[in-house]
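Purpose: get a first structural picture of the assembly so the mutagenesis plan has something to point at.
Setup: two entries, given in the order below. No constraints added.
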Amino acid sequence: MASMEFWFEYGSTYSYLSVARIGRMAQRAGVEVAWRPFLLTPILSALGMPKGPFLTNPAKMAYMWRDLERRAAWHGIPFRKPSHYPPDTLLTARIGMVGCQDGWCREFTERTFALHWTEDRPIGSDGNLGTVMRDMRLEPAEILARAQGDEIKAALRAQTERARTLGIFGSPTFVVEGELYWGDDRLKEAMERACTSEFVPPDVDLLFEI
Amino acid sequence: MASMEFWFEYGSTYSYLSVARIGRMAQRAGVEVAWRPFLLTPILSALGMPKGPFLTNPAKMAYMWRDLERRAAWHGIPFRKPSHYPPDTLLTARIGMVGCQDGWCREFTERTFALHWTEDRPIGSDGNLGTVMRDMRLEPAEILARAQGDEIKAALRAQTERARTLGIFGSPTFVVEGELYWGDDRLKEAMERACTSEFVPPDVDLLFEI
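Result (C-alpha cells, whole complex):
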C-alpha cells in the first residue's frame, strides 16, 4: 500500500492546516499515513534557535497569523486565532505517543488541534485534554499515568532523535520513500508522490479537494 | 489596471523560481508588476540573523537545495545547482536599481538569475554581469558608474527601508493592495488576488500554466 510518514509538533501553527486535511486526503488517495509526533524545540535549540522562527521576528510573526487565516479560508478549514502562543506541548506530545501505541493518535491529534484552533482551548490545557479524552471515551487517569511514565518519555525522546537524524528541522514534515517534504505547502506534492510511487488513482486532482 | 509589487533579493534562492515565472504569468493575467530589488541582509541583521535562515541550519540548507530542484522540475524551469552560496549581491542590486530608473529591471533580473541558475555564472561576478550587459546592449562603464554613484546607493537604501516598513522579512514577497504574500509558494495566490481585485479573466487556472 502507498504510505507516508507525517511528522508534526503539537505547537506548530502551520501544522494545523495539515492535521485538518491529511487524514481525509490520504483516505481518498489510498495512502496509509503513519502519524509521528515529535518535539521540535530540542532540534531547534541545538541549532541555536530555542524560540523557533517566529518569536524573535515580529514581522514574520504578524505575517504568519495573517497567512494562516488566509490559507485556512482557502482550504475551507475553520479558524479562530488562539489567544496563547506558543502552547506548552510536552504532555500533549506524550499522550500522542500513547495514541500511537494504541492506534488513536490520528483522532486524538485532530481533536486536540481542532479545540485549539476553533474554540481557543489551548493545546496542553486541562480544558483541551480533558474534553478530548472524554469525547474519545479514554480513561484520563490511566492515559496520564502512561503518558508520564518512563516508557513513553523514552519513546518520545527516541522519536525526536529519529526526526533529527532524518534531517527534519520543522513541522509539518512529510516523508515518502526517504524524501522529505517540509511545510503544509508541500502536502499535496508529498501525497502525489506517495500515490504515484505505487499507483495512479483515476483522477488525482479530485483527491485533493476536501 | 491590476497590479502588484514584486520585492526580491538577488541572493535569494527561492526567488529564482518567481523571477523565472512572474513576468509571463503577469502578462497573461493582465497584471502590471513593479519590480522592487532590495537588500535582505540589513533587515535580517537587525533581527539578529545576519547569515539568513540557511547557513546556520545545515538540515534546512540540504533540504532547500533538494526542494528547489524538485520545484524547478515541477514548474518546468531549467535548474543547475550553483557552486557558490551565498553570492555577493550588492553591485547587482544597485544595477537593478538603475534598471528600475531606466525600465529594464525585469529583463536584467531575468537574465542575471538565469546565468546564475543554469550556467553557474554567479550573480555579482564579472562573468555574469558582463554577459548580461553585453547581451542587453548596455554600456558597462556608464551603468557601473551610475550603480556606484550616490543617487543609486541612496535609492537602494531607501527601498530596503521601505521593505522593512512594509513588514517584509524574506524574498520573494508580493504585495497586492497592501497585503503581503511571502515566498514563491504564494505567487499564484498573489496573482489571483491582483486579478480578482479588478477583474476576473475568462479562465484563471489557464493563466498559471507557463
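Chain B has ten helices and four strands.
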